[in-house]
Amino acid sequence: MKQTTLFKQFKTALEPKLHLGSGLTVALSGGVDSVVLLHLCKTYLESLGSNQSISVEAIYVNHGISENAQDWQQFCEQLCLSLHIPFKTKRVNVQPKARQSLEALARDARYLALDELAEQGNLILLGQHADDQLETFLLRLKRGSGLRGLSAMHDEVRLSSGRQCIRPLLNISREDIEAFARTFSLAHIEDESNQDDKFDRNFLRNQIIPPLKKRFNGFLKSTLRSIELLQQQQALIDEISQADLSHCVDKNDVPATLKLNELKQFSTLRQSNVVRAWLSDLGVVMPSKAQMSQILTQSLESREDAQMQVQLSKGAIRRYRDKLYFDAQDSTPNNIENIESTTLVLNDKATLKRESSGLLRLPFENERVSIRFGLLKSQIKPYKKIRSNTLKYWLKELKVPTWQRDNIPLVFYDDVLVQVVGHFVSAEHICEESGISWELIQHAE
User: Fold this and answer.
1) Domains of the chain (ranges, CATH numbers)
2) Which of 52, 60, 237, 301 could anchor a disulfide with 48, C-beta 3.0 to 4.6 Å?
3) C-alpha 380: how far from its chain's center?
4) 35-55 burial string, b = 16+ CB within 10 Å, else e?
């Protein structure tokens, strides 16, 4: 296949990203965009000749939504066979959910499957093109999205696992892709659902965008330029937000908290950006405009001792003294009695591990070791304190937020509290030379 203008555009988009992976995995649907993408990858490999150092594979994700899905899978498999490209496939079950579009659910399932099946270290290539970008922009405009939403799709996306995906066709029009397919007689499938205008994207594609292109010469190109400018402006805002966040965040807390005295120094707009940047770093879904207003008003304008809780889709924003906290509202783990292991899974977000360096003495042979929770009336004399008191007293002195106290792992020897994990050990159970320590390991979402 000769090197066309479209191939050169593809190559220009691909090569700066090659350092992100050791090979290429094409998300193959059988549609014209992914078929052209696969052929471009094959042509790129051939252009390397004997210097070829990367491999290409293709993955078809069968959503099972269309009755033709199995036929499409067979088409993709035969296409890869003819090109001598390794082929993988997976069937996913997409169940409709309230307040979530079928398109979004299918996309999330597709990303999970691609991440699972793609060769380790491979760069995943997605087939979205310029017209898809225009449709996304108009959909988000219709929803009243802000700057980040109107920035639409980026040419690079990171999955939750950290794996990189790229969209090397994002600046190439559907018209050029279809012309390429005709020129080289590339067979592809047609998804019958693309003609169903009950879906917003199809309605825009079939009824709205064609008249706009006909009326306004260069409409697609102009919109792409606007999107690029929006992305640049969002990137600048992100830089400023991260700088502001570093001034306000307390990373000594786990998860990190926001220091309100520092946050107060900024304007309301910058305060909102800092809160969003903080929540984004924690992997929390962004609050709505109304929720953000509540967060700022309740945290910065109410009395210091006022009880604050702004509920988000998952978890809540709380204030304690002069800091803002994100409370994931996880249920308290179950007690674990008669421990013999040195690593304990408390729940899907936390593991407790016994480290060989610390101040706590090893248990005697006849002592039972247990991990318990919420026993705030237990008495303990912390190391280097002059007297004993309740756990509730010491946690209050340490300024531990009230809602966090029941979830702190407590180490018991028989029925005696010997360590409050993450805070202190009992002065009566110290071994400075060969002690141990139980440490909490938090897992990413």
Assistant:
1) 5-215 (3.40.50.620), 236-327 (1.20.59.20), 343-442 (no CATH)
2) 52
3) 41
4) bbbbbbbbbbbeeeeeeeeee
Residue type, 100: Q
* Per-residue confidence (pLDDT) for residue 99, from 0 to 100: 59
Cα distance between residue 239 and residue 258, in whole Å: 18
Task: Tokens for 140, please give them.
Answer: 């988000």
pTM: 0.78
Distance CA 281, CA 438 (A): 27
Provide φ and ψ at 164, rounded to 5°. -95, 135
3-state secondary structure 37-76: HHHHHHHHHHHHHHHCCCCEEEEEEECCCCCCHHHHHHHH
Look at the block and give the residue holding tokens 């090569």: 15
Question: What is the per-residue pLDDT across 375-387, written as a single tens digit (0 to 9) for each?
Answer: 999 999 999 999 9
Cβ(140)–Cβ(149) below 8 Å: yes
Beta pairing, strands 123-125 & 24-27? parallel
CA 320, 322, 328, 331 dihedral sign is negative
Strand (E) or helix (H) holding 214: helix 209-215
C-alpha span between 177 and 435 (Å, rounded): 67
Q: In 259-308, where does DSSP find H-type helix?
A: 260-263, 268-281, 289-300
What are the helix and strand counts (H, E) for the chain? 14, 20
